[in-house]
Amino acid sequence: MKFNKICILGLGYIGLPTASMFATHGIKVVGVDTNPIIIETIQAGRIHIHEPGLGEVVEAAVNSGNLSVAAQPEPADAFLIAVPTPFYEHDFGQYDGQTYKKADMRAVTSATEAIVPHLRKGNLVVLESTSPPRTTIDLVVPILERSGLKAGRDFFVAYSPERVLPGQILRELIENARVIGGIDPESAQAGHDLYATFVKGEIHKTDATTAEMVKIMENTYRDINIAVANEFSRLAERFGVDVWEAIQLSSLHPRVKILKPGPGVGGHCISVDPWFFVECAPDLSKLILRARQVNDSQPEFVVELVKKALGSLTGKKIAALGLAYKPDVDDLRESPAVEVVHLLAKAGAAVKAFEPFKPEAALPGVDAALTLELALKDADAVLLLVDHTEFRQLSPETLKTITPARVLIDTVNGWEGKDWTSAGFKLFRLGVGK
Ligand code: SAJ
Question: Which positions are catalytic?
Fold first, then answer.
């Protein structure tokens, strides 16, 4: 199948890079977003997210004349839906005495509805947003059929999960293997033909529900593996062991690769997607639920560590370094670092946070400093929450000159291996009971 024009709904971390990829590979792309600020920003040749190399690609796409942006979709050969699927903040499910989070599918629903008036015979519609199993056939197809056309007979529908890692999106979009699940084999083939425009990795065809499940399985697998690492950090403290050393030694085994403990699991993927299984089949997802609970409670474990390091939290001035959900990104969504800051403040500490990738971020309940120096200037303790390169590279000598604090708490093993003691610091590390 040949595609001359496509419409991409949702210009976030996935939609915008994907739109630019198609546009720089010769396809006319209309990028659609409901947020007028995003539309204005891209029209002005700028971007609203931090992702290495993305600014240049978007600029090239806009300059080529192939990428335009709009508030509403318009007729096209294919429509791609890449809108967020978060969970509800205040609406929970209950199963067997346990609380679980529920997917908020309103953005997928309204993006699909917006396509209906423009849907024509022979079109392809692809859902990319991570979604609970069966969303494509149970939610998307019935909405599209309100057009009077029949899915499978008059138009193609597929699900294709994005699997790119924030920080490496552009490379992974091209190189990663891609899974395309069609509601029938013809739809899978149409999806294959679309992505073959720029994907260099293998493209595997399957059915839509398998493709949905593949995506959630990948992130659930990672979540469970991080949960066990976090549980190991708690056990190591109890047993007087350095978890980082124990992980390194365990990972010498040819079939063992333990992930890293830390302040918890954040972002809009791994901390969200496993809930889609729990919500749809709580009776069958008990390990998955438990792993979510372990990772979600890790910020409390960090607060206990800070309390141990400082004796008490009341009135203590703590400089919290990093608010992003992981190193060297500007994304603060579902960030465990933010949760730690909230919990410390609730426990009576005076926390000044600094996030180098978004110093001006205004988050409720977070007192953010505009510079590292301002965060550190009269601190009692320094708490390393994100392993940003900029923080890892701080030397004891430099830190000594910009803060009076002599207590350091490292939750990400970013400061191991430096001689903090000679510089007069006392270093507490997460998962270290020695
Ligand atoms: N984390 C740990 N320990 C680790 C690894 C990660 O605590 O050893 C934490 C991070 O600090 C962060 C969270 O987990 O808070 C998630 O970070 P991540 O780098 O593991 O993953 P994401 O959320 O940035 O991207 C994931 C990726 N999925 C997998 O690796 C299976 C990516 O390929 C997906 O495309 C993305 O989710 C997504 O969009 O679903």
Answer: 215, 269
Share of the chain above pLDDT 90, in %: 94
Closest Cα to atom 40 of ligand 1: 269
What type of residue is 136? T
- What residue type is assigned to position 272 of the chain? V
Distance CA 68, CA 61 (A): 9
List all residues whose CB is within 6 A of at least one atom of ligand 1: 130, 162-166, 218-219, 222, 226, 259-260, 262, 265-267, 269-270, 325-326
Confidence of residue 316 (pLDDT cuts 50, 70, 90): very high
Q: Which atom of ligand 1 is nearest to the CA of 166?
A: 24
Beta strands in 183-258 (DSSP E): 203-207
Amino acid at 79: F
Tell how many helices (H) and how many strands (E) occur in the chain.
17, 15
pTM for the model: 0.93
**Which residue owns the Cα nearest ligand 1 atom 10?**
326
DSSP β-bridge partners for residue 320: 353, 383
Q: Return the C-alpha torsion angle 267, 272, 273, 277, nearest 10.
A: 160
